[in-house]
Design a protein that fits this description.
2 strands; 18 helices; mainly alpha
Length: about 325
């Protein structure tokens, strides 16, 4: 498991104090760099004196973490392919417990900074993280923002909140405003990456994503801001994921490559049932906006519902008409 950056800082500091020369010990300590920030999404990439481990050794060392993640992914994919609402809820709970509270590891804007500058963590020290990252990108290319819909611990938490909050408290954002607000997250992504490229300072990550909450390490002001965000989420469901998340924006761009898309019936051109049901604002008439769809299964379960979906109702109605016509044409004996 990747060590929290706070622990790495403490270990490095103790090592420096114990290994420093006596002359250095007599010198006054330099003032702290104001640009230095604790990064809860940092990686362990320091090489040991005897040399880095081989990839095989790293895989063996990360065997438990890879096994746990494989078990979680199996649960997530089974719930996805079976379109089971109950299994989806179990997956969301597991995401909060495992990736959030236990691992405290999510795909972060910090990872996007590293991808843009090709400054990625050393593979042999972060095998489990690479398995996580590759799954996220691969699943997005194959099915869309599956990660956002049932893997991200923060998104899972807000979806679970939505299931227990009384519906009467929700505010339905007008469609026109919802569509325009969905572009905010892309502006945040561009601004965050642009600022990082200009300054090489990634400390602003904590102001644009609340994933640090699972590390339980931040300032009082940020905890208050998080509280305000969660209270707002009670009224506007999935507020952060829909309108503010830069990682969601990045995966939304990747989802333009999606291979397996949700099929649509010809009746979808006029039917509005799924569009009204979609809580992510991803359905606009006959079009499913891939960059906004998180594969939550709601519309797909409706497609398969022979009692609600007009596609199946029309087929059944035609079958009934043909059956009556056939019965009428049959001569009585």
């Amino acid at each position: 498991m990747t060590l929290p950056a706070g622990r790495l800082v403490v270990i490095a500091l103790l090592f420096w104090l114990s290994a420093g020369s006596s002359a250095r010990a007599q010198e006054p300590a330099p003032p702290p760099d104001p640009q230095t920030q604790v990064d809860p999404f940092a990686f362990l990439d320091e090489e040991e004196e005897e040399g880095p481990p081989t990839l095989v050794e790293s895989v063996r060392a990360a065997g438990l973490e890879i096994g746990l993640f494989a078990g979680f992914v199996t649960l997530a994919m089974v719930s996805f392919f079976r379109k089971s609402e109950r299994l989806k809820v179990v997956t969301l709970i597991a995401a909060v417990g495992y990736l959030g509270l236990y691992k405290s590891q999510l795909i972060s804007i910090v990872n996007i900074f590293g991808l843009v500058t090709l400054n990625l963590p050393i593979l042999t020290y972060n095998v489990a993280w690479y398995v996580f990252a590759v799954f996220t990108l691969a699943s997005t290319i194959l099915w869309g923002r599956l990660y956002c819909g049932r893997v991200c611990a923060f998104g899972a938490m807000t979806q679970l909140m939505d299931k227990v909050v009384p519906a009467k408290l929700r505010v339905n954002v007008p469609r026109v405003l919802e569509r325009r607000a969905s572009y905010i997250k892309y502006a945040i992504l561009v601004g965050a990456v642009g600022y990082f490229l200009a300054t090489r300072d990634m400390s602003h990550f904590k102001y644009i994503e609340p994933f640090w909450m699972f590390t339980f390490h931040q300032t009082t002001g940020l905890w208050i801001a998080l509280g305000v965000l969660l209270v707002a989420t009670i009224f506007v469901r999935n507020l952060y994921c829909r309108f503010l998340c830069p990682v969601g924006a990045f995966l939304g761009l990747v989802s333009s490559l999606t291979v397996f898309r949700i099929k649509r019936w010809s009746e979808c051109k006029t039917c509005k049932i799924c569009e009204k049901t979609c809580e992510w604002g991803a359905i606009r008439g006959p079009l499913i906006v891939k960059s906004e769809c998180v594969r939550c299964d709601d519309c797909e379960r409706l497609y398969a519902d022979t009692k609600k979906c007009p596609h199946w109702l029309i087929i059944q109605r035609k079958a009934d008409v043909l059956a009556r016509q056939a019965a009428a044409a049959t001569p009585a004996r």
